[in-house]
Specification:
Blueprint (H helix, E strand, L loop, with lengths): L35 H14 L3 H7 L6 H26 L4 H15 L5 H21 L5 H10 L7 H21 L3
Amino acid sequence: MTPVAVSSVKTDVPLATLRVDSPVSAITPSAPPYTVDEVLENFAALLESMDFAQELALLGIRRFHFRHRQKAFRELRALYIGVWRLALLRSFPEEAEQIFATFLATLLDDAAPDKNQRAKLFDTLVHSYVDMLHERGDADFTFVSGHIINLFKHKNEDTIPRRLKLALLIRNTYTVIFHRLI
């Protein structure tokens, strides 16, 4: 996956002014002066800095399991983009969908023409995780962790402890994302 360049989308409007039904003069001084670009850049940098080492170790994917690593990176990135959406909904309930749509549009726009189909498939994968996470919100990540464990299950191993450990890792990542939104 190519690095996300959010500079191609011009959204230097403060988040508080994104509401269509409110005039700019009605903005309260306590509204955060963050722009959509700042939120997008923060998450893009956070997503690129994730190495998924703990998740890969928990899934039993080692260094030379190239195909499994590539698939796991794709799945975990899509998952954490969905987790970021949950954090956005909690922090910016009115602007979250626009910010999220802008981020996904940027991913598609930044894809090379020969990899456009792959970018569309990744977009579909992100939306599938968004749907999974929508069911329980940020209260319980065991369902989505069970899905990922089942994708990479090699043998009939202890899936319940792995599922719970992965749910805790997802919870920790959600907390990090939530605290570093801005």
